[in-house]
Automatic annotation (TrEMBL):
Protein name per UniProt: Carbonic anhydrase
Gene Ontology molecular functions: carbonate dehydratase activity; zinc ion binding
Lineage top rank: taxon: Bacteria
InterPro entries (UniProt xref): Carbonic_anhydrase_sf, Pro_CA_2
Length: 127
């Protein structure tokens, strides 16, 4: 696999899921740098946030995709999320839907959905 310079994560701001997600992206997708876009429960915000929330995500995605040429974006939901307290199954459904929305904004990049546990496990939900 050729090395990717930049990949992108849209992750929760929760400190418990930063390192595991970054490391998984670097190892699984052979990435050098992981651009991090964070908020509290971003999967929920992409689905039903305000216009300003969406603008903020798009502004940062533009930098990562158009300027850093990231070709892979991962949307992350996680266990024990305070910003989006939905149970695991619902959390995963929301993350997959959020990934579809991001995909519609940026059709030329690969968008995947991930679920992170507090023990550091990362599950890929969609391709
Ligand atoms: Zn969270």
């Amino acid at each position: 696999m050729t090395q990717k310079e930049f990949v992108t994560v849209i992750n929760c701001m929760d400190g418990r899921v930063q390192e595991s997600v970054q490391q998984w992206m670097q190892e699984t997708h052979n990435a050098k740098y992981v651009d991090s876009i964070t908020d509290a429960g971003p999967n929920k915000l992409i689905l039903d946030g305000t216009e300003d929330d969406i603008k903020r995500f798009k502004k940062m995605l533009d930098v990562s995709i158009l300027i850093h040429h990231s070709s892979l974006v991962a949307v992350v939901g996680h266990e024990g999320c305070a910003g989006n307290p939905a149970p695991e199954r619902e959390q995963c459904t929301m993350t997959e839907k959020a990934a579809e929305i991001i995909q519609s904004w940026y059709p030329d990049v690969q968008v995947i959905a991930l679920y992170a546990t507090l023990e550091g496990q990362i599950k890929q939900l969609s391709e």
